[in-house]
Amino acid sequence: MDQFMQVAYQEALKGLREGGIPIGSVLVIDGQIIGRGHNQRVQQGSAILHAEMAAFEDAGRLKPQEYQRAVLYTTLSPCDMCSGATLLYKIPHVVIGENITFTGNEDALRSRGVRVEVLNEPACIRMMENFICENPALWYEDIGEDEKVPGC
Questions:
Q1: Sheet of 70-74, strand order
Q2: Model's pTM, two decimal places?
Q3: Residue range 53-81, pLDDT digits in tens
């Protein structure tokens, strides 16, 4: 696992330890982490505080040309909301820890010229598989779907 995905993974673990959904993200510009975050919907009672949104918030206001040099690392394929924010800020490169347990809107990103790199890191996959099996109601609430019986 590369260094930036490792930091995103540590953010996901932090969220899990806090009783939240284990997804982490970092925003990197010129080889430096400028924003990091983890899903905090549960912890903050938020409707929108996914890991990517938390990383954007942590980075603060940036100029458009800064976003256009950024790489977004996320442990899980980004949902429609997080993909939309990525497109809004014209982030050119997204590195995804895994898209086995959930495939977000990668096609929309690619269709707009974003380089999407999927690593399918075993640690990211295991973390989400375990979480979904142990917390199906919370997981399906987070992705905006009715609860299904997970294949655990």
A1: 32-38, 24-29, 70-74, 93-96, 115-118
A2: 0.95
A3: 999 999 999 999 999 999 999 999 999 99
